[in-house]
Amino acid sequence: MPINYTAIRRDGLSTQISDTLRDAIIAGELSADQRLPSETELAERFGVSRPTVREALKRLAAQNLIRTQRGATGGAFVNRLDWAEAYDHAITTSTLLISMHDVSFETVAEARFALERACLPLAVERRTSGTLARLQSELAHQSAATLSDEGFCASDVAFHRALVDAAANPVLSYQLVGAIEAMQPLMNMITYRARDRAEITQCHKALLAGMESQDLAACTDALDRLAVYTISLGHRRASGS
C-alpha cells in the first residue's frame, strides 16, 4: 500500500509526518537502507515547509529509524537496526519504565523469573560448549572471596545473560534483555546488603549442572529456588528485618 502523503491535519505537522514515515518503515513500505525522498520532495508531497519536514526527520533519527549522509549520494536513509542496538534500547526503556512507575519488587521479580523460566527449554536443548564456558567462568568469578558487591552483581547479570543467550534465538534474547539487564540490576540494588552470596552461587551451580547434563527439570528447580530466595530478600528488605 503506498504512503498516504496527504492524510495529515494542520496541527502537530512534524509529529504526524514522522509518525506516517515511521509506520511506512514498520510496514515495509520503506525498506532498510532505502533512501527517503528529499526534504523538498517530502515538503511538496505533504504540503508543508521544509523546516517542518526537517523536524520530522530529526524525530525519526532520534528513534534510530533513519540515518543521514552528506554528499552527492547523501540524504536520509532507513536505518538497518542490529540486535545490539535494539538490546540497548530495550534495556534503557525497561529501566526507565520500572524506575519511573514505582513497580513493586515482587512484581519485578515475578516478571523476571517467569520470562527466564520460559527461556530454559531452548537454552537447555541448544547450549554449547561456549555457553557452558561462559557460565563456568562467571560462577568461578562469583566464588572469589575478594569480589566486590558491584562485581558480584555484574557477574550475576552476566551469568543469567549467558543462560538466556544459550537459547540461540535473537528475538527471544531481545524480549528477555530487559528482564536480565534492566530488572535484575534494580533487584540487586535492593537486595545486595541482605543476600547470602553462597546461597545464590549454590543455585547457579545447580543451574550449571543442569545445563551440562541437559536436565530441564533440574534447571527449572534451581531457578525456582533462586526466585523464592530472591523474593524472600525483597520481603525482608520491605519489613526492615
Describe the structure.
The chain is mostly helical and 241 residues long. The protein folds into 2 domains: 66 residues, Orthogonal Bundle (Arc Repressor Mutant, subunit A), CATH 1.10.10; 157 residues, GntR ligand-binding domain-like (Four Helix Bundle (Hemerythrin (Met), subunit A), Up-down Bundle). It has 10 helices and 2 strands. Strands 1-2 form a two-stranded antiparallel ribbon. Helix 9 runs antiparallel to helix 10. The longest helix has 24 residues.
Major sheet: 2 strands, antiparallel
Assigned CATH architecture of the largest domain: Up-down Bundle
What count of domains describes the coordinates? 2
Number of helices: 10
Structure class:
mainly alpha
- Under CATH, the topology of the largest domain can be stated as Four Helix Bundle (Hemerythrin (Met), subunit A)
Q: Can you tell me the CATH class of the largest domain?
A: Mainly Alpha
Radius of gyration: 23 Å
Mean pLDDT: 89
CATH level-four homologous superfamily name of the largest domain? GntR ligand-binding domain-like
The CA-CA distance between the termini, in Å, is 61 Å
The count of β-strands is: 2
Low-confidence region ranges = none
